[in-house]
Every structure is written in C-alpha cells, then in structure tokens.
Amino acid sequence: MKVIENKNLRAIIAIKGAELKSLVYKGKEYIWGGKENIWNRSAPILFPIVGSLKDKTTYIDSKAYSMTQHGFLRDQKFSLLKYKKNEIRLVNIYDEATLKMYPFKYKAVVTYKLSSKRIRTQIEIFNLDTKVLPFNIGGHPGITCPMYEKETFEDYSIIFQNKETFNAPSVTEKALLDFDKAYCTYTDLKTLPLKYSYFDIDAVIIPEVASQKLKLVNKLNKGIEFSFPKFTSLALWTAPKKHANYICLEPWIGYADKANTNQQFIEKDNIIKLKQEQSFKIYYDIKILD
After folding, report:
1. DSSP type of residue 28
2. Which residues, 6+ apart, have CB-to-CB distance to 76 below 8 Å?
3. Which of 14, 90, 175, 193 has the fewest CB atoms found within 10 Å of its own CB?
C-alpha cells in the first residue's frame, strides 16, 4: 500500500490492481473498504472488458479466450513509476499470463493525483503491439453512503448534470445484458433519490449517459461531485439485498455482453480500437463537497 496526501486529503492505493483503497477528508472515509461477504473490492479498474462475457468466453481471430468479470487488470501486480507526496503513478505491462487471456501487448499506466479536495484517477493504455489493440475500459469506485453519522442510504440523492432519458437493460442470471427487456425506464431524470430496492437484482445501467458529472449528496447538499468526461455509459450499483453502506458510480466505455451476443470480441459495443504506437487516456474525479 502507498499513501499520498495534501492539506485536505489522504489516499491509500494498493499496488495490486493500482486500486484506490481509502480517501479520507476531515476524518471521514469516502471509499468503501471492502468486505468479503458483501463486496471485497473498493475501486477496481476495468480492462480489457467491462462486465461479463457470455460463458466467460470471447473469440478473437477465431480462437476462444476466457476472462472473468471486468477483466484481469484489477488483479495484476503494478510497479511504481512515480511517487511524491500528492501523486503516484503505477504501471502494468502484458506478460505470458495475460497473453493467454487477451492476445495483445499493452501497457497500462494508472495515476492518482490530489489537488485541493479532489482526487483524479487517470488511466492510460498504450499499444505495444504490431496490430490494433481493441478494449473496453471502466472505473468502479465504491463511495461511502451514508457519509455522516445518523444518516441512512435513503437520505442521499444522485443529481445529474443533464437530464437523463434511458431504458436500463435487464441483467440476466449470468450477468449478461438484455436490452429487449428494460429493468427500469426514466425520462428527463435529473435527481434520483437513492433506494436499496433499485438494486435488488443488479446495477442500474445508463447505456448512453448524457451527463459528464453528477453529485451524490445528502439533504444538506454535502457529499461528492463525480466527474467522468469521455465515458459513454454509467452504472449505479450496490450489492443486492445487502443494505451495505456504499454505492458504486461506474463510468464505462463498453459494458457486459448482450444476452444475444455472437461473442466476437471486436464486435462488442463501444470497443476502442487503438492503433499501433498510440495511447488512450481517460480519467474520473472525486471532489469532496462540504
């Protein structure tokens, strides 16, 4: 574990998965610490897939490859590239084990930087291969909710930057998406008061999100502002029927396989096709609102 801090914030980052494990402001913890019987992660980085593959299998150049949910990067060991008081940069590079799951040569660089009351998570993917590098990518930070004593989950609301109109796809028992069967439908949604019942089955997914930022706040408008420019989808999730004290705000490019998928990796929705010797950079911010 590595610590970065400034006059306002203190963050802890795990070398495994380059995962943010803690963010403390004025003694309050803003990141879910993980619990084995609920959800044992905190803020994993999703690459080279988001969500699940049908039968945990995809086909690349007619060959079958297997990956677990959200890809393998979250479980990889990273190395230190840069480390100073308010910033850390970590790197993971393909190896023989990753090539067996995903036959592409990549480099992933994850940077965390603190400024005032904000932490930025930046992910940069480099194509080290001699061919196009296809991938999906996402974030999965678990935000403490409620954040203050004598509050409940239902005391919080999500306020979107723009009005959101969408049909959230149903999530099947095998964690695939059924776009023909809406889990819920919203028109011109600006404020979503939180209820655990929303997540009784799984995530609420906005396939084409109109906003680039949102607020997660209590009745006094205290909480966080979450910014996610360049991401195309957003999921909201907490472990079903656990009534745990967190909600995940998940910005994605891509999502789980559709229930009727042909399992061809290159045909996945919103697949990024990174050319040789190029890189792709994206970030999201968590800013404390007090």
Report:
1. E
2. 16, 17, 92, 98, 108
3. 193
Continuous segment of H or E residues that includes residue 83: strand 79-84
Q: pTM of whole model > 0.85?
A: yes
Radius of gyration in angstroms for the set of CA atoms belonging to the chain, rounded to a whole number: 18
* Secondary structure (DSSP) of 200-252: SSS-EEESS---SEEEEE-TTS-EEEEE-TT--EEEEE--TT---SEEEEEEE
Contact between 224 and 215 (Cβ < 8 Å):
yes
- The whole-angstrom separation of Cα 158 and Cα 162 is 12
**Cα four-point dihedral sign 207, 90, 28, 116:** negative
The CB density around residue 248, as the number of other CB atoms within 10 Å, is 23
pLDDT tens track for 30-67: 999 999 999 999 999 999 999 999 999 999 999 999 99
- In the chain, DSSP finds a helix count (H) and a strand count (E) of 1, 23
Cα distance between residue 144 and residue 148, in whole Å: 9
- Closest by CA to 107, choosing from 89, 122, 127, 90, is 127
Task: Give the domain range for residue 108.
Answer: 2-289
Measuring CA to CA, which residue among 234, 165, 160 is closest to residue 203? 234
Token code pair at residue 247: 């909600």
* Count of structural domains within the chain: 1
Q: What is the CATH number of the domain that holds 206?
A: 2.70.98.10
pLDDT of residue 235: 98
160 Cβ contact list (under 8 Å, min separation 6):
189, 190, 191, 192, 210, 211, 214
